[in-house]
Automatic annotation (TrEMBL):
Biological processes, Gene Ontology terms: lipid metabolic process
Origin: domain of life: Bacteria
Pfam families given in the database record: GDPD (PF03009)
Protein name: GP-PDE domain-containing protein
Domain GP-PDE: 1-238
GO molecular-function terms, A-Z: phosphoric diester hydrolase activity
Annotated source species: Bacillus weihaiensis
PANTHER family per UniProt: GLYCEROPHOSPHODIESTER PHOSPHODIESTERASE, CYTOPLASMIC, GLYCEROPHOSPHORYL DIESTER PHOSPHODIESTERASE
PROSITE patterns (UniProt xref): GP_PDE (PS51704)
Amino acid sequence: MIIAHRGASGYTPENTFAAFDKAIELGADYLELDVQLAKDEEVVVIHDAKVDRTSNGKGHIHHFTLKELQKLEAGSWFHEDFYGERIPTLTQVLQRYGGKIGMLIEVKYPSLYPTIAEKLAKLLTEEMYHNQTIIVQSFDFQFLKQFHQHAPSIPLGLLVKYSIKGITNNQLKEWSSLVSYINPNKALVTKTLVKKIHYRNMKTFPYTARDRKGMEKLIHNRVDGIITDFPDLTKKDPSIESSP
């Protein structure tokens, strides 16, 4: 599986319709996107806790209403060709891409948003989204437990930061009681780790591959999917596609 990191963010401004459209054009299997809550508790698609880096605004996401957020320009920071892109809501993304591509939804900074588990679960379990392929992921295992109480049918992924200690068998045993995916920093991935994840009946989508060499290594280690800024990277080299 090829998972487009914040959309095709190597080519377009991340977490925008331009990035998601490009990911579909390049044949990605999933969109990876980030969600947070606006001041009026609307679920919006943006990575950072502040709008500063990826828009012409300044300040924390939760200090803006949805109406205020959607007035911001969110494309020209990447390139002038993308002037006019906006910060989308998750509802807009689901409506626009439902049935076209899977979605790997990362909840950012859940501790900032006490109601986000309930809000997101309600949104994703509404009738209109039942047939979409959706995975919810986070670095916060406790948040995933909380979300699962509200939406037990939605599969979960645990993101794992790089640590020199790696991932232990005890951790995998604990995590496997809740999640279906272990999505580690790519530097943690070995063939042995992938075997251990598969032994626990989980899958793994490591993050974030940005070059062909990195992809080759992950494919060699038999991962189930790759989170990448460049969804077309494997298609440029047949030797990668045919790697065992």
